[in-house]
Amino acid sequence: MWPLAISGVQRCPARLIGTRTIEGRQPWEAHMRDGIVIVGAGQAGARAAEELRKQGYAEAIRLIGSEPHLPYERPHLSKEYMLGREEIEAIFIHDERWYAEHSVELIQDTVVNADLSAKTVSMGTGARLAFESLLLTTGSEPRRLAVPGAELSGVLYLRTIEDARRIRISLKAGGRSVVIVGGGWIGLELAAAARTLGNDVTVMDAGDVVLGRALGPEAGGYFARAHRAHGVQLLMGEQLAGLEGAEGSVVGAVTASGRRLPLDVLIVGIGALPRTAVAESAALPVDNGIVVDAALRTGHPSVYAAGDVANAYHPLFERHIRVEHWDTARMMSRAAARAMVGQSVSYDRIPYFYTDQYDISMEYWGSVGRAGFDQFVWRGDPDDGSALGFWLQSGHVRAGMSINIPKMGKLIEALVRSNESIDVEALVDVDQSLESMLPAAESA
Length: 444
Ligand SMILES: Cc1cc2nc3c(=O)[nH]c(=O)nc-3n(C[C@H](O)[C@H](O)[C@H](O)COP(=O)(O)OP(=O)(O)OC[C@H]3O[C@@H](n4cnc5c(N)ncnc54)[C@H](O)[C@@H]3O)c2cc1C
Description:
The chain is of the alpha/beta class. The chain has three domains: 4-141 and 273-340, FAD/NAD(P)-binding domain (3-Layer(bba) Sandwich), CATH 3.50.50.60; 155-270, FAD/NAD(P)-binding domain; 359-443, FAD/NAD-linked reductase, C-terminal dimerisation domain (Enolase-like, domain 1). The protein is built from eleven helices and 28 strands. Strand 7 and strand 8 (128-130) form a beta hairpin. It is globular, with a radius of gyration of 23 Å. Residues 1-33 have low confidence and may be disordered.
């Protein structure tokens, strides 16, 4: 928990840069009127604050977050932490001292409204803060089940430290029947952790193959084989129809085809939704997230958005994309911070994602989704332990991934960025160098 509670607003004891009393304001509003307010003290929010100070921004920075923790990185929650190999202390982005030393004021509260003409945000506790510029990094939240029984106790989701603690307690002793609804990233990472800890695991998904929406059938099929080889039961093409309870707790799942699955633990990983309520309160453009341009600016010149919540125009892909990945939260928020201090920004980083499941370490660069490619090829055989995979459209590499081959980022990014037609036969031939397939300037 953050240490101090002032008028219902808990703060880290940060040194405020210059304060002045503004007549008629409450004590917590009596700081400098100028400055940047960041709503959402997650990864994107914390990295933006860090970048603002790095760029020499000397006015007030206020980082407002609903969670009772210092900003932290979520990826470990479903991996090292879930496996008991790491404790929570390892995931905080900075310790408390860093915020104090950099005069970043942490405020634990929930912003309920932003008034862009008054340039203020209002919080759940009734406090109001003024800003010169506003950054929205409100992230995303798990999509909830909408089936009979969804309200039963024991229906678990994973987003926060508290969620992870609950799930870890359920899994750590092993020997339990675990049903996971959703064969996406969170579902599969939890399946891997649950199996590794000695539980019986069933993953149910409405699609034909796990990760089908993100990767398509070939790469998804590889992950399906890996999970089956570790003893996970995959129920594909199965939709959850309802949950059964006993004394208020979930004890079973029923599929649309009528299959009944008794269970000890039910975990739901059916995707996430951008948290756009604050943007909507300010009538900012929202369409699958907060719509921003390549400089991460919304329709209002002083309001920016970054991270999971931002649907940003990508100059290379020439369309808006919303990316729910760690690297985007980390780098897009820094770019937004630079734009906020007046630098010229055009955020065109190739989206990057990683996952760790069993002994698989996978990294991915690009953005294709289900419909953004017409060909998928392997370079090497992933079932032998390592390989590269490429998604192509009309002979152009649109995305690439590495399975247990480190340090492929620069090359794969360059292939995606080059936007040139590639010799696919050479691409899949492990005896031919990938560098030779790059345009001359990029391979030099
Ligand atoms: C379990 C898990 C595992 C993951 N693993 C990976 C991985 O392996 N690889 C990868 O690339 N990505 C992974 N991700 C995704 C990655 O963690 C996210 O992309 C990243 O956390 C996004 O950061 P963010 O700051 O945009 O949003 P968030 O992390 O969601 O932070 C937003 C914060 O804003 C707060 N907030 C929201 N609304 C308000 C409000 N109105 N007022 C105040 N505060 C508010 C929220 O409480 C939250 O703390 C994982 C995510 C999860 C949940």
